[in-house]
Amino acid sequence: MGYKETFTLHWTEFWDYETPKVVVVKNRTLGIIYRIIQLLIILYFVIYVFIIQKAYQERESAPESSVITKMKGIGISNSSMGIKIWDVAEYVNPPEGRDVFSITVRTITTPFQRLHTCPESANVPGSKCTSDLDCMAGEMELLGNGRKTGRCVTHHDSLKTCEIQAWCPVENEHSKRDSILTRAQNFTIFIKNSIHFPRFEFTKGNIQKNRHQEYLKKCTFDEETNVYCPIFPLSLIIEKAGQSFDNLSQTGGILGVIINWNCDLDKAASECKPHYSFRRLDAASQDTKASLGYNFRHAKHYMENGTEYRTLIKVFGIRIDIIVHGEAGKFDIVPTIINIAAALTSIGIGSFLCDWILLTFMNKNEVYSAKKFEEVLKERIILAVNEHGASEQELRAIQPENCKHC
Amino acid sequence: MGYKETFTLHWTEFWDYETPKVVVVKNRTLGIIYRIIQLLIILYFVIYVFIIQKAYQERESAPESSVITKMKGIGISNSSMGIKIWDVAEYVNPPEGRDVFSITVRTITTPFQRLHTCPESANVPGSKCTSDLDCMAGEMELLGNGRKTGRCVTHHDSLKTCEIQAWCPVENEHSKRDSILTRAQNFTIFIKNSIHFPRFEFTKGNIQKNRHQEYLKKCTFDEETNVYCPIFPLSLIIEKAGQSFDNLSQTGGILGVIINWNCDLDKAASECKPHYSFRRLDAASQDTKASLGYNFRHAKHYMENGTEYRTLIKVFGIRIDIIVHGEAGKFDIVPTIINIAAALTSIGIGSFLCDWILLTFMNKNEVYSAKKFEEVLKERIILAVNEHGASEQELRAIQPENCKHC
Amino acid sequence: MGYKETFTLHWTEFWDYETPKVVVVKNRTLGIIYRIIQLLIILYFVIYVFIIQKAYQERESAPESSVITKMKGIGISNSSMGIKIWDVAEYVNPPEGRDVFSITVRTITTPFQRLHTCPESANVPGSKCTSDLDCMAGEMELLGNGRKTGRCVTHHDSLKTCEIQAWCPVENEHSKRDSILTRAQNFTIFIKNSIHFPRFEFTKGNIQKNRHQEYLKKCTFDEETNVYCPIFPLSLIIEKAGQSFDNLSQTGGILGVIINWNCDLDKAASECKPHYSFRRLDAASQDTKASLGYNFRHAKHYMENGTEYRTLIKVFGIRIDIIVHGEAGKFDIVPTIINIAAALTSIGIGSFLCDWILLTFMNKNEVYSAKKFEEVLKERIILAVNEHGASEQELRAIQPENCKHC
Questions:
Q1: E-strand spans in C36-130?
Q2: Backbone phi, then psi, for B52, in 5-degree steps?
Q3: Vertex B50, ends B47 and B55: CA angle to 5°?
Q4: Distance in angstroms (rounded) separating the CA atoms of residues B351 and B228
Q5: pLDDT tens digits, residue range C191-226?
Q6: DSSP state at residue C298
Q7: Is there a contact between B66 and C20 if contact means CB atoms under 8 Å apart?
Q8: What is the pLDDT of residues A175-227, one digit of tens each?
Q9: Which of B285, B308, B362 to mutate to test the interface with A (most CBs of A within 10 A)?
Q10: Measured between beta carbons, which residues in chain B are less than 8 angstroms from residue A368?
Q11: Interface pTM (ipTM) of the complex?
Q12: N or C end of chain C: smaller count of CB under 10 Å?
């Protein structure tokens, strides 16, 4: 054959339809097993993979998120420094209304500090001394407050500590303690959150549209009835996180407000609702009480008669971390086809199993085997031709030796 | 057969090559249908799944991101307190140059507050009174400024409100108002962003390498010509977010600068460019004007003659949230194989359809059916043996009864 | 046939088991090729896809993360303003212990600024002048410090600059410079991080449970021995980021501490460990030195005799960005099935290749071809009926013409 003929032949053959030859086994038992296996696989895919796991959806996690917070409420404290009124500008830190902020619940204030020399706090390891020899001039303890001058001085009564150059007097048991207790639990936190899934170009917020303007001034969050009213009493957050205010107001702590958006965008946008959960974050990783609680020190500086003074404040606070997490899914043809293809391939596993049953356990497995398998052996064909005097073409048609197990 | 023979037999069979027997239907119509279906499926996968959806790529979203911001510009305000110059240290809050910061555009200042007693603001619900009986001593309103002393005092003229213990005087209509108007629109914001995709170990920033040092001092962002110059006039951000400065300077607001990195890492790294978009975030979730705008209160404390004073400032600001979002894709063998497998399986759907046409609609469907299906029935085989006196082995070879529909 | 009979027939057929007819080619060479191809594909899937790539796992990236930081250490500086002790409240900014904070290493302080008029800094472009004509009253330079009054005044010696209305005196070469050098490298940073993968409901922190309470007070991070002790000396972070403290203390800079959680949740939870890496972030995107470094200005305000003063501080700091990144994988049936299906389909590619070898290169390819392919041609069947006088049904059984290439 020339190239042209070969091409013509192949071109003609290209338009033939090829379909696998199928052996039909009229065995009711096997048929039932086969169909039950198929049914189980189909059910599994339809119910679990497609309906429960929503494998037909393209998914996007980590949406763009913007959080705005605003607190309301007035607290009051009564200490040796007198009655103090705490408004939002006093107890919220930082004031800008971001996703992380702390609410001051207890303070240790050391006022009128200035750069000077004074005895080190007795709480600092290595600060106690009996003579100047114990205090190496210029040395600075990592956990201390300043640089040793080299002198050992009286802290109070008979206790002596190294003298240090520092912001003096240092924070010690004489520092003033103050706790906001009254009403701090009733403070409310307004959390405005809007998310955006860029792949699906879907934006939503946790405040409902078309609500009466006064709604947000009076409502309180409730998971059942007021899910679109993101105004949370502090007491609610503490309670849902499984904590007590009394405990937190002593040590401080970090509470996470987790906003979870789990959106099925094949449904209406109104079905995509925020879910709030609350968790204590500073305790998450430990059973021991090491470093439990939350506090930080900050200083307010001021000048008086040309000297710089500062008020050092150790703040025990309830820090609120607003953590936004989300996942959206929407029908997409690519994962759908991948999963349907996986389903179809899996149905083939049913055939595989039934073939094995057919060829191994069935009464007449040799009969079935002979029907399913057709052997090709060069020697046999040649032998057959000699014996019967038939042409090779006829032999092919008759297929005399297709017994596999004989 | 003993175990050894069985094993030898199976071992020999293991090296046989098995291939499905195929029925070739020489029907041009069916062949064309079959090939067209195959072609459509292949085209769909090649064009949509592989070229458009880039299904051959492993994808990573949520890159590590670091944002540095720096503002430039001088504003000026003229109020009852006199002319005030606003430089960066005055209007940017917090000053550290993070991804979220606010630009003060309007302030309501209440200076010289100290802990004292004074009449409550008339704007607070429940503050107005006619006699001491209206003011319960010790009560604190959630939206109020302090704790009621129990007395009803004159606010101004004939208006009486409950006296409170608070930071006095409270913020009211006499507080000083100030607006930076001049030139605030011309402030520029420099945004440095670098991202890192850990899975692909790919790092990129929004500033081009090898640029002349002076470039960043003079350029202005332009999506077409200067995409690597991340210096944004505030007016540009406001305009692109569809807002007006006049409006924002009254109520404040939150503007999102969204930096989107959509990187095809199979291409050159220089093809991975940041895309900037701008959106107002505080209005996203609502049509009503409830809680639109952005403001917060903060206080500056100072001492004078041993008394602690504070200046309370209500800041209306334009808060800028830099939101970084990114997705990178790179060729990976696992998704490629999964998608090719899905494609091959899908091509099988063509066969399924053509088989159905073949067996249902074709003129000679019984002929085709007989060729495609080969029945195995125990009873028929036994019957055949009796009638023809042939051995079972021969029967298997001849396959006399493979008519499916008779 | 009526509808009932048709239905009965199809119902009976539904319970038949259908299995593809297979041609067994007893050719050792082809069998070996076939099995080797299968083996390679299976090995590839088992080793690469399943063991290395863990394709049987459902993956979740971007966990919820909460970071708490706390610094320890005392620094000291000695400048024209005298010796200054820097404690945590002085050098950490902002103090709240978030994931981003800066450590002051150098300051340029301009004290006693008040709103007034003074000569513009000579460093501002366009500030130098020779006469009042060079200074347009009311003009404000973007990079300047205030609004021009229209007068040209002496800056110092013979240098003249435009007079401006600003916070005066402006920051210039006379501002006081101060550097914390002593011991700043030995500051330690305690980083507490807890993550939560919501899909797997898995929470973990970077501090080990059940440790003795004193452990965290004395330990130092070490990747080998103390991976659960997240106390990092600043010097360690600087060194691991490939930087030098001397360099950073001049220009400031931003260092990223990247915590990477790569968790295989099929293993024990204790196997899910944090991995720390360190990188300089402000230099990531550039070779040039443009805008390298990190500094910001902030102001402390105070009142003296009714006049508002401020101290402007330009802070060069080492900003630490704690970036948390994580990915968790857990066995899930959906990706497992998809990948097994892809594997099975891929094994089919082996058949495809062997069929092609069989039909093209093998010695007796026409024999094999005849066995594999069975043609159906309407004309041939009719012809056959005429020649042999056989019934159509018998013909179907005998299948005389199944040679494809003859």
A1: 57-61, 64-72, 75-79, 82-86, 92-93, 100-119
A2: -80, -55
A3: 150
A4: 53
A5: 989 888 988 988 888 887 666 667 777 788 988 888
A6: E
A7: no
A8: 888 888 767 778 999 998 988 898 898 888 888 766 666 777 778 898 888 88
A9: B285
A10: 376
A11: 0.79
A12: N
